[in-house]
Amino acid sequence: MYIYSNKLRSPRSSKMSYSSLPLTSKLFQLTFLTCALALAGCVGGDGDTVDSIAPPPDTGIQPGTGGNGSELPVGELNISESKLVDIDGNPINSVSLEGAYYEIKVTNSSGQPAANAKVTFAIDAEGIALSQTTSGATLTDSNGMARIFLKPTAPQVSGAYTITANASNDSNTAIANVNFLVQATTVSLSTLNVTNSQLVAGGQTAVSMIASDTAGNPISGILVNLNANCGQLPIQVTSNENGVVEFVYKAINTDNTLCSGNVRISANSGSSTQTANLTIQAPEATSIVYTSNDLTLGIQNSGSSATGEAEFTIYSNKTPLANAEVILSLEKSPLGLSFVQLGNRADQTLRTDANGRVSVNIYPGSTPGPVEIKATLASDSRINALSKGISIASSRVTQDGISLSFGTNALDWSLDGDETPVTARLVDRNGNKVPDGTVVNFTAEGGKVFPSSCTTSEGTCEVTFSTQNPRPGDGRVSLLAVVEGEKAYIDQNENNAWDKGIDILVHNIGDTFRDDNENGTFEIGEFTYPLTTQANGNCENNIDQFIQLKFPTFDPIRKNLFKQDYISNFVSPNKPMTCNSELDAVVRYEGIQLLTNGDNPEFTLLDKNNVRLQDQEVSADSSRVYTRINSGGFYNLNPMPSGTTISGSVTDKTDGPDSGSCKVEMIGGPEKVPGIVYTGKPGDNTGTINTFALDGCEAGDFFKISVTSPKGTTTTATYTIQ
After folding, report:
1. What CATH number has the domain bearing residue 322?
2. Burial of 244 (0-12, 13-18, 19+ CB in 10 A)
3. Do residues 115 and 140 touch, judged by C-beta distance below 8 A?
4. Contact, 510 vs 539, CB < 8 A?
């Protein structure tokens, strides 16, 4: 043991009594004195020698000297005790596999215990682990004591080691160390004790053994490595204080696959190895679950998903079962659908994969409808499951299956940033929503549309239209939506599929353009959608035949009205001589957003036929006043912005018995400009018409119309009753 301090004391204060020395030091002092006396007695007699007197016996350790003869500077912090003890507290100089404690006592210059001194411990070589502290340091207690537990990391660790303790308190330090020996321990593992060696797939059992030395004494803290050719068990287990090693084996792998057949468990520590065999019964399927999400596919040649996949999972006691036979059958399906393999509609037998799953490919036909697939265990027909949420419905949008709607179609263009949502709605020729993710692109004659495209979800998607420059001078903004789809056709052979040369296109369409002047004809300067057809054929029109087939009982007038509303040249602008005879097309739809001015309304008095009055006066003889309110400036044919409020009032200025009897009531027209107004055609006056009833009014009274825009601007027109 080596003890060191960094503070010197006087020789007097550093002396120790002889009785306080360790036995080895006492023996060393006595031996030294005996030899000195012997040497003194053997000298002399020839005159060349000098009699010498033996020095007095040493009664303590001299300053600068340790118990092992090393330099020992002593200061304000000392380590007065330093020793190894076993777990029972007995002093030792060798450490076994069960470990030991290294203890020190720290005192001050007065020999009193030094509490709360920091003590850092270290081992000079690998193979020994210090525990009880992650930092390798601790504080002394009130008795100045500190200790740490040390233990060989493996039974085969052996050799000489040194453990050092470094005590510090402020700037004072003291160091002590102890050398010790470690001898390798031979571990013997007992036979594996398996509680149940006959398991079902996915079952589990407890396993135990005892770790002991060569003398048969149980050893704690022994790491035992475990392994099995199938199933789950810990990688390592440590023996407890009684040398017992315990763990649980599960007949199921970490990837949830089940074990079966013969399984071998092995355990080893050092040179000692033990094995045990288990028998795992073959797993049995106990349930089938449909494990796919809802699936919607388009019909054959629709341009949407050509195939889909459904999935069933087979379980054995809640664990996926691999290699199980499953019979698949079509219980319900539309015409032309096949499954497992293209063209197949017969029952098929498949085996589950490593995850207990069996996947079924689905190939749509030409007809929409629900699909139901049944999965049955080959080993037990009572165990089966049906698919859910599979349908053949979605196809591409058709020429007559797209529409646009504006949240508000009369925005206040006197300011920037007045905006409204624009929603596209798309269906296929069967009236079903188009596949999610269908992309719709937008362009606008003026203002801003953002984003420039949207993708559908449940057959709809939305962009935003906002006011800003450019502002078309006619107060009308053409907005065009385009999407990849197909033309509308008359199914002549009634097979619900397009047959070129047999079926007839309702209205053949080619390349599209944005009809900014709304005349139904492409003119140089109007925006064109990038060419897609590369065709130069005639764009025939068979709408009349289509109407006759669908509505044979309609009178000619109703047929003509339907024809105009069905799909006009404006709603579906089409460049002539750009058509082909294919079904594919860029479907298009054009809508109008009106420009209005909320700061400058125009007031017009009308007669009962909504014709402008020449004199623009209110007559006392009239019981009805008809008004039209328009946006001012360039946009004087358009209404005020949506949300504008309209009201009428009177002021009775006359004297006499009937003074104060003049009253007014709005009896026709909107009190607020609606969100969606009639857009008409270029040149149409779409202003808001209101009717007011006057009662008890005389010449000289005043009639007022007040208009308040959505941004709060109020404008009043006052008319003197004549």
Report:
1. 2.60.40.10
2. middle
3. yes
4. yes
* pTM of the complete model beyond 0.70: no
- Is 575 part of a structural domain of the chain? yes
CA distance 389 to 336: 19
pLDDT at 469: 94
Domain that holds residue 159: 2-16+61-182
Residues 228 and 338 in one domain: no
Residue-wise pLDDT for 606-637, tens only, equals 999 999 999 999 998 889 999 999 998 878 99
Question: Taking the CB of residue 111, how many other CB atoms lie within 10 A of it?
Answer: 9
Residues 162 and 109 in one domain: yes
Tokens representing 429 are 């020729």
Residues 163, 131 share a domain: yes
d(CA 282, CA 716): 91
| One domain for residues 411 and 521 | yes
The domain boundary residue, chosen from 569, 594, 619: 594
The pLDDT of residue 578 is above 80: yes
28 in a structural domain: no
Parallel, antiparallel or unpaired: strands 702-708 and 714-720: antiparallel
Window from 4-8, 371-375, 461-465, 570-574 with minimum mean pLDDT? 4-8
Q: Convert the pLDDT of each residue in 240-273 to its tens digit.
A: 989 999 999 999 898 878 888 999 999 999 889 9
pLDDT of residue 263: 96
Q: How many domains does the chain have?
A: 5
Asked if 169 and 117 touch (Cβ cutoff 8 Å), the reply is yes
Please give the pLDDT value at position 65: 32
pLDDT on residue 131: 86
CA torsion angle 607 612 618 620 (round to 10): -30
Query: Nearest to residue 522, comparing CAs of 601, 599, 588, 611?
Result: 588
Q: Amino acid identity, residue 423? A: T
In this structure, are 74 and 175 located in the same domain? Answer: yes
Q: Answer with the one of 594, 624, 659 that is the final residue of a domain.
A: 594
Confidence class for position 371, pLDDT limits 50, 70, 90: very high
Which among 705, 685, 673, 692 has a CA at the least distance from the CA of 611?
Answer: 685
Give Cα 55 distance to the centre of its chain: 89
